[in-house]
Amino acid sequence: MDAPQFKEFAKEMVDYVANYLENIRDRRVLPTVEPGYLRPLIPDSAPQKADKWEDVLADVEKVIMPGVTHWHSPRFHAYFPTANSYPAIVADILSGAIACIGFSWIASPACTELEVVMLDWLGKMLDLPKEFLACSGGTGGGVIQGTASEATLVALLGAKARALAKFRKEFPDLSDFEIVSKLVGYTSAQSHSSVERAGLLGGIKLRSLPVDEDYKLRGETLENAIKEDLEAGLIPFYAVATLGTTSSCAFDRLDEIGPVCNEHKVWLHVDAAYAGSAFICPEFRYLLKGIERADSFNFNPHKWMLVNFDCSTMWLKDPAWLVDAFNVDPLYLKHDQQGAAPDYRHWQIPLGRRFRALKIWFVLRLYGIENLQAFIRKHISIAHYFEELVRGDDRFEITAEVIMGLVCFRLKGENVLSEQLLKRINARGVVHMVPSKINDIYFLRLAVCSRFTEQGDIDITWKEVRENADLLLAEKKNHIN
Ligand SMILES: Cc1ncc(COP(=O)(O)O)c(C=O)c1O
């Protein structure tokens, strides 16, 4: 493809993308295809001679779209949001053109330097303590990871390196293997599965602690677990607190957990994957109380801050623990300016990294903080609107406090009622939701996800829920009679 063809193709694609997104409301949220639908629609092997771009573009609608779940449909309410905005899409085009691999400063200075500054911009927007910001001139700073899962694992590895260094000094007779076998970390029973996975990948024990009646991890629970483990001769070294749990968007009590971690020299990592974006609004920062006690903090602008996947921002007070732990320095990666700016390859698991800071830069400049705040507030007010509709129908109940853009609700009574309700709703394809279960109580989760969602869409969603409930409950009644 030459440049003139690229310009034509790209312009057509931009039209296609804008039309797709602006008319996404008209598409069924969930596809109706069966597994294996795609193979018969395309040839068995790659073309020997080049196809025409016009044919490729035409095939997008024929081959791809029938199998797409439309995450940006205003009635997609599953999981948590994943971000999508025009500025971020355009930034990704530029990133694709520059196509550098910014593993070290010299590998593309702009890639590293924009990332350092963007993490400061964002950190200031959340009012993070200055110890996390590179601009404060201390040891702290931020980095873009691919996902929150990576951030949790990277923090765990940093904590492991810190614990090893400390205990090697205190117990010179113990081998590294013996120290690692005594390490124990903590999280709540409501934290994301990626936390448990980080424990498995990092090869350490991770205890899943019970939560209170509001699904929050409390300081006292952590304190008791740490004391129990110390008495058993174990080494508490790492804890993950979640701000905005996946099941019900509960907020662990950071203000209680932080002092416990500090007292026992346990590395505190804060996972705010979804809810972290809301901290750009000052009225939600009460949930961040205690953040000054944390060692690392992470949230995903790629979830709820209009920066397309992947962009998971992580701040560390002392990245040296990672840099030293992950520092493998072959000659071909060395450069003369080493030490003057971060070489981000030491802050992450892969070597390669894309120029993701461009997406943050474009989004922050082209929306401005005000519009981003308005976007978050709108989602939250839409969630409260749905909450009120649910509360107005006494067949239903709300199962968790609505704080952000997530509403957890169910039909009163046996789980099976809500299970069947969700099956029916998803089968009609107008709306898509996923369930969760806490303490054996099954519930539906309505997450406000799309930037196109308006109150009118929520009226349609509620109509779907109500109509399906009417049918289901009528059938049950007839069956009993
Ligand atoms: C609280 C929480 N942590 C971690 C994750 C994992 O996010 P990622 O896909 O960025 O690894 C999620 C995903 O929804 C989440 O809700």
From TrEMBL:
InterPro entries: Aromatic_deC, PyrdxlP-dep_de-COase, PyrdxlP-dep_Trfase, PyrdxlP-dep_Trfase_major, PyrdxlP-dep_Trfase_small, Pyridoxal-P_BS. It comes from the Eukaryota. GO terms for cellular component: cytoplasm. GO terms for biological process: amino acid metabolic process; carboxylic acid metabolic process; catecholamine biosynthetic process; serotonin biosynthetic process. Its cofactor is pyridoxal 5'-phosphate. Its EC number is 4.1.1.28. The keyword Protease does not apply. It holds the Pfam family Pyridoxal_deC. Transmembrane segments: none annotated. PROSITE patterns: DDC_GAD_HDC_YDC (PS00392). Keywords: Catecholamine biosynthesis, Decarboxylase, Lyase, Pyridoxal phosphate. GO terms for molecular function: aromatic-L-amino-acid decarboxylase activity; pyridoxal phosphate binding. The modification N6-(pyridoxal phosphate)lysine is found at K303. CDD domains: DOPA_deC_like (cd06450). Coiled coil: none annotated. Belongs to the group II decarboxylase family. Homodimer. This is Aromatic-L-amino-acid decarboxylase. The lineage of its organism: Eukaryota, Metazoa, Ecdysozoa, Arthropoda, Hexapoda.
